[in-house]
Write a structure and sequence with these properties.
single chain
Length: 84
Amino acid sequence: MDQPIIDLGKAANWKVIRLAKKRGYITSEELDRLLPPWAATPEQVDDVVNQLAEAGIALVEVEEGIESQMSPPANSNEPPDWPH
């Protein structure tokens, strides 16, 4: 592999990774922004997902428009966005 799959030279990419690490998950939409389908093979995407899992970051599938309504996974220390 000549170049890293994710361009860590971009501040926006670091921001996504830091947020994902903090809450314990990354959404499929966020991962798509980090890894555009035209830029990575399915095997490379699997490798990145596995590396994220090893770092304690789960991949969650979220339907567009409901991400803000989703509860964090059980391994997250972050409270839900809405009052109970």
